[in-house]
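Purpose: get a first structural picture of the assembly so the mutagenesis plan has something to point at.
Setup: two entries, given in the order below. No constraints added.
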Amino acid sequence: MKHTSKPFMAELQQARRTGNPYQSALADSPQPGPAAPALALEGPAAAPVAVDHSEVLRAIHDLGSKLDRFLTLDNNQIEQIQVDIADISGRIKATKMEMAAIRHPLAGEDRFQQASQELGAVVSATEAATNSIMACAEELEEVVQEVKASLPEGYHASRVGDMNDIIVRIYEACNFQDLTGQRITKVCKALGYIEERVDAMMSLWNKREFESMPLPPSTTKVDEGLELHGPSEAQETGSISQADIDALFA
Amino acid sequence: MKILVVDDYATMRRIVRNLLTQIGYTDIDEAGDGVTALQKLRESKFGLIISDWNMEPMTGLQLLKEIRADAKLAPTPFIMVTAESKTENVIAAKQAGVNNYIVKPFNADTLKSKIQAVIGGA
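Result (C-alpha cells, whole complex):
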C-alpha cells in the first residue's frame, strides 16, 4: 500500500528554525521496493508550504453527517423508550389497582380469609351431616335386624332384608364426604398460595400506595339496604341464634 | 379375623367399619394415623389392614413400608383405600408391597371382593 505522510506543523516549524529543509522520517528510512516518494520541503525555510486541507475537510464533513444521523436516530430511540416507559408505568399502575382490588389494606373484609372460612364451614357442615346420616342409618340397621329376627321367613322378612341393602347403599353414598373434604382442602391450600403470592407482590411496593387506591366494591348482595350474607357460623359477630329470634317473637 | 381400619377422617373410618360389618367382619379396630396404627399393630395381632394414603404425620405408604420392613408385621395383608388414583401412585404402592388397592368412592361389593382376593374369603 502506498504510504503517504503529511508533515506536522511542529516539524515544519522546526525545519524553519534550524534552516534545514524538512525531510519526512519515511524518506530517512530505507524503503523496500521502489523508493517511496519523499515529502520533503525543498528550498529555503521561508518558502510557502502547500498543504492540502481537502481530505481533512472531507473527513470532518463525513463525521458531521454521521453525527447528524446518530443524533437523529438516538432521538427516535429516546422517544420510543419514553413511550415504552409510559406504557410500563401504566401497566404497573393497573396491576397495583388489581392487587388493591384483591387485597386492599383498608378493606374491612379479607376475601382470602373469608373464602377459606366458608370452605372450612362447608367441610364441617358436610361432615356433621354425614355423621348424622350415618347415625340414622346405624339406628335403622339395628331396628331392621331386630324386626328381621322377629319375623318368620316370607315376604315381610324378605322386604326387611331389602331395607338392609338400602342401608348399605346409604353407607356407600357417605363416601362423598371424604372426597369433597379432600378436594376442598386442596382449594384452601391453593387459595393460601395465591394469598402468599399477592402479599409478596404487594410487599415489593409501599403499602401506602395501596391505601390511597379506591376500595374494591363489596361482593355482598344488598336488598333494600340490607346486606345478605348467606349462612353464617353461630359464633360469628352480628349473628343471632334461633333461640334469640324466638325470644324476639315471644 | 381382626381388621385395622386406618384413616384420618373419623367419618370414613365409620363408613368402612359399617360396610365391613355389613359384609360379615365384626372384629374391627381403628387408628386415625399411621403412627397410632403401628402402635396398635405391635400391641395386637391383626389379620388385615385397610388404610387410607393421605394422612399426617405418617402417610399410608410410609405405614406400608414400615410394616413390610418389620419382620413380625410384614406378612400382614394390606389394602390401600384412597382417593389417589394416579398410575404412578398405584405402582408405587404395589412396589412397596400393597396387596390390593381401592379407589374412593367405593362400595361394599368392591370392598368385599378385594378382601376376599387378599385373604381368601371371610
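Strands of chain A lie at 221-223, 226-228.
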